[in-house]
């Protein structure tokens, strides 16, 4: 699935991903495209480039420690190149959006703990991570509500339940 608008690189750094979901590389690429296509008004113009890394907890923990000062693994990290004012922009070249890195052990454990299918939880986290690359955030309550609503709508198109449903009932 290739077009001139997106250059999406998927890196399988932890084999457990493919053992659990044999089509994981194609799956995350489709999910990234879904997220990018969902909000053309918020997406930068022109060809876009991003990478998705299917890693393990050790890799994500090191990145989280080195870049965010948090010495612990997390489910997904997004490094948005558009947040870097010094990132080079080359006329005619695809615009580098950044990287989304997922941690196998944390994602698998969360899915099991929450009673969710691994593929569904992965779908949520890929969409969430890619939306961060194009400027969505959840630091403020209004921003969080907008991002969560979009994630929920996108997941519903895939037949996946609202991942925030239980959180909303507790508010």
Automatic annotation (TrEMBL):
Binding site for Zn(2+): 128, 132, 138
Keywords: Cytoplasm, Endonuclease, Hydrolase, Metal-binding, Nuclease, Ribosome biogenesis, rRNA processing, Zinc
E.C. number(s) listed in UniProt: 3.1.-.-
Places the protein is found: Cytoplasm
Necessary cofactors: Zn(2+)
Predominant location category: cytoplasm
Cofactor binding comment, as recorded: Binds 1 zinc ion.
Entries under InterPro entries matching the protein: MetalPrtase_cat_dom_sf_prd, YbeY, YbeY_CS
Membrane-crossing residue ranges in chain numbering: none
Domain of life: Bacteria
Role according to the record: Single strand-specific metallo-endoribonuclease involved in late-stage 70S ribosome quality control and in maturation of the 3' terminus of the 16S rRNA.
Family: Belongs to the endoribonuclease YbeY family.
Name of the protein described by the UniProt record: Endoribonuclease YbeY
